[in-house]
Write a structure and sequence with these properties.
The chain is an alpha/beta fold. The protein has eleven helices and 16 strands. The longest helix is centred in the last third of the chain and has 17 residues. The structure holds threonylcarbamoyladenylate (TXA) and magnesium ion (MG).
């Protein structure tokens, strides 16, 4: 049985938090909101509890999870030998959506790190998450609260859709703010590499690095061979095949129009920015749109992305068509998740925008 308790996202009721913290302290599993996505938390010092996370999610044991702290001052509980540059980034961005990969402290269950000598750590910027971790009195290991390989959960309903009956409690604090996971970075020899783009943009990270006199972050090519294990190429996947279209706006719209015209009587899902959706109107009744808002307002689009994917997927369309955002700001992380979700990528050539990077 999975209990659900509502909490005020800004001023959580201490008795509700204490109930959840007791579950963590006694080796159970609690899903809770963070500012990025919902996490599935367990005591990071308790090997059996961490094993339960992997079982509930059916997560690959080779995919390490992130350890969450209530406060940057608790860092020695989770990590040791923190390089000065990592410390400076923590001071600048915590609490917030930056995850640092650091040498693992002894008490943290090796299972958390999938056997690696390192551990990924962050301090979430969410009152519920921080109150829970503080009350638990231990670092909280928490991957995203979804079944392995599926889209991350941005609401309590998403958590239940994947994990009902498999975990002890969900703290329902409403939809999460960023809608995308944290940015995971490694710091080595005074250089930062981005292992997973996320809610903290590379531009913001590089701004801080410039102020600190450090070189700009290197973007690691993701995939099984990359520095972040478990970053599978196919991940975040809806059940219906997702077809990701990238290229100049006019070519993308013409391609989509043709694709829709060819399948007028097939249920299809469309995950589109308003600008692209407007060019395809009127849509046929079986072609369902989940609109992300304007491509100029990526914060709003990022917040909606995973919920929109789940919403379209629920209708089991024959395919879901999505358009890649520009690879700037939050667009980089959105494009990363869409590519991992995609069964097929249709590349219609470089974008017309000369500032858009192509990777
Ligand atoms: O925003 C987030 O990061 C959310 C919330 C709940 O905090 N958590 C999250 O966790 O997305 P998860 O487990 O779904 O993703 C963790 C990522 C994985 O890509 C994993 O490969 C990477 O962090 N990671 C964890 N430990 C690592 C390590 N020791 N070295 C390299 N990468 C690591
Ligand atoms: Mg995840």
């Amino acid at each position: 049985m999975t209990d659900v308790l509502s909490v005020d996202p800004e001023r959580p009721d201490p008795t509700v938090i204490e109930r959840a913290a007791l579950i963590i302290r006694t080796g159970g599993l609690v899903a809770f909101p963070t500012e990025t996505v919902y996490g599935l938390g367990a005591d990071a010092f308790n090997d059996d509890a961490v094993a339960r996370i992997f079982a509930a999610k059916e997560r690959d044991p080779a995919d390490p999870v992130i350890v969450h702290l209530a406060d940057a001052g608790d860092l020695p509980l989770a990590a040791r030998d923190v390089p000065p540059l990592a410390r400076a980034l923590a001071e600048r961005f915590w609490p917030g959506p930056l995850t640092l990969v650091l040498p693992r402290a002894e008490r943290v269950s090796p299972r958390v790190s999938a056997g690696l000598p390192t551990v990924a750590v962050r301090v979430p910027a969410h009152a519920v998450a921080r109150a829970l971790i503080h009350a638990a009195g231990v670092p909280v290991a928490a991957p995203s609260a979804n079944r392995f390989g599926r889209t991350s959960a941005t609401t309590a309903a998403h958590v239940l859709a994947d994990l009902d009956g498999r975990i002890d409690l969900v703290l329902d604090g409403g939809p999460t703010f960023h809608g995308l996971e944290s940015t995971v970075v490694a710091v080595e020899d005074g250089r930062v590499s981005v292992l997973r783009p996320g809610a903290l943009t590379v531009e913001a990270l590089n701004g801080a690095l410039a102020e600190l006199g450090a070189p700009p972050a290197e973007l690691r090519r993701s995939g099984p061979s990359a520095g972040s294990p478990g970053l599978l190429d196919r991940h975040y996947a809806p059940r219906s095949p997702l077809i990701l279209v990238r290229g100049p706006a006019a070519a993308v719209r013409a391609w989509l129009k043709e694709a829709l015209d060819a399948r007028p009587d097939t249920p299809l899902g469309l995950l589109l920015f308003d600008e692209d959706a407007a060019a395809l109107q009127p849509l046929r009744p079986l072609h369902r749109l989940a609109a992300l808002g304007s491509r100029r307002e990526l914060a709003g689009a990022a917040r909606k992305l995973f919920a929109a994917m789940r919403e379209l997927d629920a209708a089991s369309p024959a395919a879901i068509y999505a358009v890649e955002p520009d690879l700037e700001g939050l667009g980089l992380a959105m494009a990363d998740r869409l590519r991992r979700a995609a069964a097929e990528v249709v590349d219609l050539g470089p974008r017309e925008d000369p500032t858009a990077r192509t990777a």
